[in-house]
Amino acid sequence: MASKVKGRKKSEMKRPFFWLDLFGVFSFAFLLLCTTLLVSCDNNTQTTGMNTVKQTSPKERKAQLLKSLDRKFENPDAHFELGQLYHAEREWSQAEWRYNRALGFDPVHRPAQAAMVKLFIDSGDPSKSRTYADIYMNQAFSSPTQSLELALAFQNERLDDYAMACFQQALNLAPNSPEIHKKIGYYYLSRNDKERAKEYFTRSFQLNPRQPEVAGELGRLGVEVRIPSNAGQNANKPEKINN
What we know:
The chain has helices at residues 2-43, 58-71, 76-88, 92-105, 110-122, 126-139, 144-156, 160-173, 178-190, 194-207, 212-220, and strands at residues 45-48, 51-54.
């Protein structure tokens, strides 16, 4: 009888441990499942700040843009973005048509102009590309602001020769513009040419020392500068370039 009681006590003592082990197995399996689901979700999402945004495929984005054009066909930005999607897919005629629509509704849509020049290069027509680049640069020839905008658009398309030509065009029209010098500094920094970036940032800072962001770039490039005590008053005020 005593042996039966002992056996019963042992089995009763084992039961909690059995349930604990079983709970541990299920907990581990649950955690593994959650991790797998989170990784899967992360592959289909993009995190921006505090929000998680689902990435859109090119096909889905096209459908969205076409729907928005059904509501307002004269939207140059929507036509431009559609052109970019077709451009990436090497659908040259479709891309050109969309860029032309963007420029039809906004003749000085600089990103569309730069993209059009890039399109002809990518599609194997460099002569046409040069012709269009000359036309667009001539349009902006009398305005430092427009020349700078076109330079930045060419820079975004990595058309460095055209970008530098427009930067120089802008600088010729407004040689004492700290904004133009700053943008050229960022251009060279993006191309990892730190010496030239330092040169243009330094000149920009000399023309306007109330530029904390330029001071920061110079500091990272090893140049010591002093920001005026009242620099913060006009730090966020955009420079007006005289056209």
